[in-house]
Specification:
2-oxopent-4-enoate hydratase activity; alpha+beta; 6 helices; about 30% strand; eight-stranded mixed sheet; 13 strands; about 270 residues; about 30% helix
Length: about 270
């Protein structure tokens, strides 16, 4: 083992330890890029994987994947050419009408997304769009609660990937729709908070079409040996800008073709 390899592995482990403690204690930490010598996306995913295995050993159950950085503008801002991904956990899954405990989050933001539920395993890293479409059981309206353990949302690529793609939780609607009944590219979306419109968007804002994002994820997860499976939830990426959430907020997400999705943040 060379000293360079040893140094990199130590940096990955140290970063993983810092993030695991932050998530366990629900406390923010300074940006990883300023503290650990992580060599880009590969090291950041290594950090994410270490903590994913830790959480699973502690009994947490993964239920799907989220896609981040689906906006071309955000990709250019951070200096990347493709999205990133993270784990969705069962204990942070919510549904329409739920009130979320504010104390479970650090600095939550919300974004409206299309969720896909996968109907069969997708092990082929070269899967074509037609095969993906046939494998999607149905779509649901969703809101992702993104939440960073990095202080003041001061993130760059390695920070967000290492921190599970800044995943917090997610809320799903309860009205499934077959995707051939929806115009996922041109569907409008809006998020209202406390009665005022806070964010608007459209399906095309997500890599041109939410299915493009889902296809990227299906290929990527097969490529890294963790293919999407039957029943997995896929959050395909934001349809509009992020919205900060505060204690006591009541939010309504509306996506054309679906019934509205409502949730609240408690005031405690």
């Amino acid at each position: 083992m060379t000293s360079g390899v040893a140094s990199t592995r130590a940096a990955v482990q140290d970063a993983a330890d810092a993030l695991f403690a932050a998530r366990t204690e629900n406390s923010q930490v300074p940006p990883l890029r300023d503290r650990f010598d992580l060599k880009g996306g590969d090291d950041a995913y290594a950090v994410q994987n270490i903590n994913t295995e830790r959480w699973i050993k502690q009994g947490r159950r993964p239920v799907g994947r989220k896609i981040g950085l689906t906006s071309k503008a955000v990709q250019q801002q951070i200096g990347v050419a493709e999205p990133d991904y993270g784990i969705l956990w069962a204990d942070y899954a919510f549904q329409d009408g739920d009130t979320l405990q504010a104390s479970r989050f650090m600095q939550p933001r919300a974004e409206v997304e299309i969720a896909f539920v996968i109907g069969r395993s997708l092990p082929d890293p070269a899967i074509e769009m037609t095969s993906l479409i046939s494998a999607i059981a149905y779509a649901l309206p969703s809101v992702e609660i993104v939440d960073s353990a990095i202080k003041d949302w001061d993130i760059r690529l390695v920070d967000t990937i290492a921190d599970n793609a800044s995943a917090g939780g997610f809320i799903l609607g309860i009205e499934p729709k077959k995707i051939d009944a929806l115009d996922l590219r041109l569907c409008g979306a809006l998020l209202s908070v406390n009665g005022a419109v806070a964010s608007t968007g459209v399906g095309a804002a997500c890599l041109g079409h939410p299915l493009n994002a889902a296809l990227w994820l299906a290929r990527k997860m097969a490529e890294v040996g963790r293919p999407l499976g039957e029943g997995d939830v896929v959050l395909s990426g934001a349809l509009g800008p992020l919205v900060n959430l505060s204690r006591g907020d009541v939010a309504v997400a509306e996506i054309q073709g679906f019934s509205p999705l409502k949730f609240a943040i408690d005031g405690k």
